Amino acid sequence: MRKKIAAANWKMNCTFQQGEKLIDEILEANIELKDHQHAIFAVPYPYLLMARSEVEEERNYDVAAQNCYHKKSGAYTGEVSAEMIHSLGVRYCVIGHSERREYFQETNEILMEKVNLCLENYIIPIFCCGEPLNIREAGTQNEYVGKQLKDSLFHLSADKIKDIIIAYEPIWAIGTGKTATSAQAQEMHHFLRSVITEKYGEPVANEISILYGGSVKANNASELFACPDVDGGLVGGASLVSTDFIEIIKALP
Ligand code: 13P
Questions:
Q1: Is the dihedral of CA 228, 234, 238, 243 positive or negative?
Q2: pLDDT tens digits for 42-91?
Q3: Could you give the CA distance from residue 249 to residue 253 in angstroms, rounded to a whole number?
Q4: Distance from C-alpha of 64 to C-alpha of 91, rounded to nearest angstrom
Q5: What domains lie within the chain, and their CATH numbers?
Q6: Is 90 exceeded by the pLDDT of residue 156?
Q7: Is 97 assigned a catalytic role?
Q8: Cβ(52)–Cβ(90) below 8 Å
Q9: 9 lines ligand 1 (CB under 6 A)
Q10: Do the bridges between strand 4-9 and strand 92-95 make them parallel or antiparallel, or are there none, so unpaired?
Q11: What integer pLDDT is reported at residue 106 of this predicted model?
């Protein structure tokens, strides 16, 4: 069975103390994750070690960085490399979130470099893709999102790509309260899986978890996660409220 994942993306929110309390409250719910279920906290860099030690004893709870730099090392003041993240014992990294694509001009080519550096450093990329509203309105979202995947991931061997997590996050649904319908999510996830099938074959495509992101809430998570090609969620706002994120983890099939 494919991994089903509830991933929290805190973005630039929470003080250290608030973040620690948030994780504590979520873990206190004592949700026992099954073998195929995972909960991941993508926290700001300065909180990675704290978060990692919080989840250390917990089965299938993990931590992710929200970004890494696209160069190996060197004179890039203020940046954080994949190797540094790995050296903290962190196993996941969000790559290519739409906010980074938009505000930091991250291109598909730069994201390819980041994916490579993550894999070289034993870090599983949570690779984000998704179309803006004008593309959705023009009806060309499949071509747009398919190209994001092809440009940044399709240089990988089957053996490498099968471990990557993909997060489809339509930009018009992020932070807007306007969730994609489960039919829209399923349609895109199915399309992405078919694009991967074309290139790598069905067994590989069937192994890759594809998460949905964009206004996932406690009250819509079950319906979204029940779609056959939706393997969980990447959650922003609702991951900052412990009671909400607890419900979202519980909604994992
Ligand atoms: P919201 O859940 O706040 O819409 O954010 C989604 C997101 O961007 C997760 O990465």
A1: positive
A2: 999 999 999 999 999 999 999 999 999 999 999 999 999 999 999 999 99
A3: 9
A4: 7
A5: 4-250 (3.20.20.70)
A6: yes
A7: yes
A8: yes
A9: yes
A10: unpaired
A11: 98
Confidence check: pLDDT of 175 > 90: no
CA of 159 to the centre of ligand 1 (A): 29
- DSSP code for 47: G
**Mean pLDDT rounded to a whole number for the chain:** 97
Q: Name the token pair of 133.
A: 């509203």
CA separation for the pair 25, 37 (Å, rounded):
19
Rg (CA), the chain: 17
In this prediction, residue 176 carries a pLDDT of 87
pTM (predicted TM-score): 0.97
Q: 201 CB under 6 A from ligand 1? A: no
- Inter-residue contact 125 to 114 (CB < 8 Å): yes
Q: From the CB of 169, is ligand 1 less than 6 Å away?
A: yes
For 210-253, the pLDDT digits (tens) are 999 999 999 999 999 999 999 999 999 999 999 999 999 999 99
59 and 39 Cβ atoms separated by less than 8 Å: no
d(CA 238, CA 215): 8
Does 177 have pLDDT greater than 90?
A: no
Give the CA dihedral 26, 30, 36, 42, nearest 10 degrees.
20
Whole-number pLDDT of residue 122: 98
Residue 169 known to be catalytic? yes
